[in-house]
């Protein structure tokens, strides 16, 4: 192994027209210690968080900052405290918000955030899955407390998933369907509506029109659960209208304006946030649950019960291709996942 590697990074928060918004560079290959795995990256998926971190901020970094959270790759070295993995294991993960990302030839990642890759799948298909699956899993299982072992009980319950065809929605609809729930998802275009129906959604409504009226038209006064995967500010009042008394709402997108929590009071409905990086950001002991969740996701993928949501695969992990992927995410109209591979 040589001592340096190629990576893609940025020093200033710039729009894509600027050639320095993302650039190729070389740096030393990091060394694994403690719980870290050194992973040779084979494929990465691009997420809205990449775009958001690239764009938002005013600082100038001395060393380039490397983006990229989703990855699939091979373990090439392990730290002295590693117990869950060994060299040559193929792994997938969503990484840690604070550390150098996967847009590089090699990356360090804490083993507690990593899962063994499912067998029998192509590497780009696997790379598409970690961040969105973990987010959907934590929202459905840990926050909404949906019990996957109770499909008969869940059959009587309905979930509304706002943004059904995006990266997270494409997994959440599949998982909710597997749990036995009746799944209503939102989509505003024929192609996003068709995509979400292919991924576990029973019925669709359009998030750019009055949703509660459409729900009523489908025969529902309200729903047991709402999973908000886009624009909480824009949808908050309708979410409060559509949730059942005693129901639960979880959002993965942050509000830009104050939310009126009082709208949930008379219904005693609950509201929760989900951020997939909370556990690693605060180094919580529960970090290891991400290893366990990814192992479960891998089993579902291996059994064919969960399908990869990779929708576009680009060959070459470099600045030019990453810029193209960021440009697509910036349109806020992605369907499934965009993956870059070697
Ligand atoms: N908290 C966390 O841990 C976490 C994890 C992952 C992602 N996120 C955040 O969650 C959001 C979704 O992520 P993603 O990867 O699923 O996004 P994505 O793949 O980029 O979502 C694209 C989809 O968003 C839909 N959309 C656009 N505007 C909408 C609106 N106003 N209401 C509902 N849907 C709308 C579009 O559907 P149509 O074309 O049909 O309108 C499009 O297909 C992003 O903001 C991301 O940063 C948070």
UniProtKB/TrEMBL annotation:
> SUPFAM superfamilies attached here?
GroES-like, NAD(P)-binding Rossmann-fold domains
Q: Which Pfam families match?
A: ADH_N (PF08240), ADH_zinc_N (PF00107)
Alphabetical UniProt keywords: Metal-binding, Oxidoreductase, Zinc
Give start and end of each Enoyl reductase (ER) domain. 17-340
InterPro entries recorded: ADH-like_C, ADH-like_N, ADH_Zn_typ-1, ER, GroES-like_sf, Lipid_raft_assoc_Zn_ADH, NAD(P)-bd_dom_sf
Task: List, in alphabetical order, the Gene Ontology terms for molecular function in this entry.
Answer: oxidoreductase activity; zinc ion binding
Superkingdom field: Bacteria
Extract the PANTHER family matched here.
PROTEIN AST1-RELATED
Q: Which family does it belong to?
A: Belongs to the zinc-containing alcohol dehydrogenase family. Quinone oxidoreductase subfamily.
Name recorded for this polypeptide: Zinc-type alcohol dehydrogenase-like protein
């Amino acid at each position: 192994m040589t001592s340096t590697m190629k990576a893609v990074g940025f020093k200033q928060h710039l729009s894509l027209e600027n050639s320095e918004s993302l650039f190729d560079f070389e740096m030393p290959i990091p060394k694994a210690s403690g719980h870290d795995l050194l992973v040779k990256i084979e494929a990465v998926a691009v997420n809205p968080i990449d775009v958001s971190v690239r764009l938002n901020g005013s600082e100038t970094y001395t060393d380039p900052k490397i983006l990229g959270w989703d990855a699939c790759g091979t373990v090439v070295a392990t730290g002295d405290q590693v117990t869950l993995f060994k060299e040559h294991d193929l792994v997938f993960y969503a990484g840690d918000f604070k550390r150098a990302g996967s847009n590089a030839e090699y990356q360090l990642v804490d083993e507690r955030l990593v899962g063994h890759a499912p067998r029998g799948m192509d590497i780009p298909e696997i790379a598409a899955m970690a961040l969105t699956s973990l987010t959907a899993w934590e929202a459905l299982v840990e926050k909404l407390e949906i019990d996957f072992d109770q499909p008969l009980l869940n059959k009587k319950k309905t979930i509304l998933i706002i943004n059904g065809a995006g990266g997270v929605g494409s997994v959440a609809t599949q998982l909710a369907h597997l749990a036995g729930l009746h799944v209503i998802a939102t989509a505003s275009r024929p192609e996003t509506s068709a995509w979400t129906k292919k991924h576990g959604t029973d019925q669709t409504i359009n998030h750019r029109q009055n949703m509660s009226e459409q729900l009523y038209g489908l025969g529902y006064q309200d729903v047991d659960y709402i999973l908000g995967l886009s624009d909480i500010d824009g949808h908050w009042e309708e979410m409060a209208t559509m949730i059942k008394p005693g129901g639960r709402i979880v959002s993965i997108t942050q509000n830009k304006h104050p939310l009126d929590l009082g709208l949930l009071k008379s219904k005693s409905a609950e509201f929760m946030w989900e951020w997939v990086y909370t556990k690693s950001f605060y180094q919580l002991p529960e970090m290891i649950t991400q290893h366990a969740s990814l192992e479960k996701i891998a089993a579902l993928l291996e059994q064919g019960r969960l399908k990869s949501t990779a929708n576009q695969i680009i060959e070459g992990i470099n600045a030019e291709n990453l810029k193209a992927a960021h440009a697509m995410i910036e349109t806020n109209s992605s369907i499934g996942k965009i993956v870059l591979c070697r």
